[in-house]
Amino acid sequence: MVKNDIKLTKKQALAFKYLNDKETIEVLYGGSAGGGKSFFGVLWLIHNCVKYPGTRWLMGRSKLDALKKTTLNSFFDVTGMLGIDSEYNYNANEKTITFKNKSQIVLKDLFLYPSDPNFDSLGSLEITGAMIDEANQVVEKAKNIVVSRIRYKLNEYNLTPKLLMTCNPAKNWVFTSFFKPSVENRLPKHRKFIQALATDNKHLHPSYIESLKRLDEASKQRLLYGNWQYDDDLAKLFPFENIVDAYTNEFVPEGEKYITADIARFGNDSTVIALWNGWRLERVIKLDKYDTVQTSQEIRKLATENYIPMSRVIADADGIGGGVVDQLRCKSFVNNSTPVKVEGSKQNFSNLKSQCYFHLAEKFKKKEVYLIDSTFKEQLNEELSLIRRKDMDKDVKWAVEGKETIKTMLGRSPDIADTIMMRSYFELVGSKSWIDDLI
Fold this sequence. Notes:
single chain, 6-stranded mixed β-sheet, 2 domains, 17 helices, alpha/beta
């Protein structure tokens, strides 16, 4: 069936070895642009489809449109190089590639849509193996659910479940679950990480590497040198290392208890309630489609159980949140209100929300926050990573990017981060010197 052979690079050959052993389940392959990631991924899928008749494989990416414009084109390139263009049929409507031996590749959109937070769209899918291109662009939950669907015809061919992922350096779950454990020699046996650089790909035209050298320094470090640690975005309030540390800062002392709540404004948003013990986040609760009366009841119940007076409960009063504040008679948080004065002096922030986010960022930097409840860890990490100082190059009051901007990038509202942010209000009211550390 296959008329031509393709010579693998050393890194691709190593990845292929792991994808054929009995120990490895998840392989992360990547590290820079031009490392032959997508090329190798589709080649592996084609190899499996040809070798194991009647099997079913997943080709996934964050958005289907991007998959069709990139990964699918790589598939067509590889089949052309192999001389097997007539051996399969691509059905654009059904999003499938079916080979003559009945093997099939299913194209899947793996974006976390608010309407499908549990990826129920993958629930009935049974596959033999999968490849996720640019895995850093999907959430870890999507990856885990894809792995859970790998069981089709494994016994028939005596196969081990296999997931191949490709990516460029990113400070999210691929960093914490693969890169960092690999560097520290503590990667679980079922996982493998292979750093593939442009310079490893002998088939790459020299002009491509020269073009990478002309990128800005941050992009060059990531896409040419595969530097996972590099991050020069000075506008970012929460460096990824500070976020990661917050889940292990067990030394943060207990203190007075507080409740902060971000109230849902629209049908697709969620109400998020946080229970604090000092700066230790002990519990995060998400409520979907609760009215103000039900939300007030839940907050009052939590406050009663933890002996928290309403003077230490705060809810945002924007939109319908005002109804909750009125019912509870708790503290009111108005995002666009005047910043809190420090030692009687006005502060150079555009609004209270921005002031609280900058204060929270300082708490993270000083390792003074302990995130005990990690139920929504991935969502919170994504949200905090997108909190940036707005118009940093202009002589204006300090502000953070607006919610709508972040919502556009996330595909959802940053409800959890906003709930965490409000904890700073209680400290700012009596704060004396935290602002000095920012100047």
